[in-house]
């Protein structure tokens, strides 16, 4: 079945998103002013790109540089299902405005086989489709762009300082613990640590084994579990813990504890 949805997310301007499934549809020759990065979730997509036919199979990434003329068509009889990002070049420049680098978003190949990057981008795309915290969206974007440009573009390094900053990691951790009920942002963590978003994420994960947004979700869901044990309602818990609504609470609670808040009981069965 042919279907497609295009949208933007107000919390991260400069990114257009597409989720689509095509069987017989073919794109004619065209180009994008943006950097186009896509995730093949099922099937395979074919491209005519730089004079060659290229096939991007399931679980791999398609990368089209700005102004590059290309097509798009089904490379299998069942078509392909995919998610696309269209990254505005001004938005990308702002992401790295605090770095002494000249950002040239030239990806070196149209097909990228990188499971970690695929997973980072997939989580980011979902976070921009579903209800998610600002820190989650910002952290996923920074992590994905860091890996994309460091490993798969003409830019060799985004951040000249890749050393682990333990003090910054602990400062960010303590700030999250003290402000766990808020919808925190990466900008707040940058301000309290004096480090860049890339340094914060890298140091935090190296020190604690999770990213700042993953840690924030763990703290929030643990607080939610505590309040459930005290007999609080899901509505009150959602508000107290800073979740957007009950479904946002339920989705994250189940991800951590394996059950929804409605099915959680602190008493023995």
Structure description:
With 269 residues, the chain is an alpha+beta fold. It is 41% helix and 22% strand. It has nine helices and nine strands. The longest helix has 19 residues, at 134-152. The chain is globular and about 65 Å long.
Average pLDDT taken over every residue: 91
Distance between the termini: 45 Å
Following the backbone from N to C, one meets helices and strands in this order, namely EEEEEEEEHEHHHHHHHH
- Residue stretches low in confidence (pLDDT < 50, at least 5 long) are none
Beta-strand percentage range? 15-25%
The total of beta strands comes to 9
Instruction: Round the Cα radius of gyration to an integer and report it.
Output: 20 Å
Main sheet properties: 9 strands, antiparallel
Oligomer: single chain
Overall morphology: globular
Number of helices: 9
Assign a percent range to the helix content.
40-55%
Structural class, judged by helices and strands? alpha+beta
How do the strands and helices of this protein lay out in sequence?
Elements (H helix, E strand, L loop, with lengths): L2 E6 L6 E8 L4 E4 L4 E15 L2 E6 L3 E4 L5 E5 L5 E8 L1 H7 L15 E2 L2 H13 L6 H19 L13 H13 L7 H8 L3 H12 L3 H18 L4 H8 L4 H12 L12
Antiparallel strand pairs: 1-2, 2-8, 3-7, 4-5, 4-6, 4-7, 4-8, 6-9
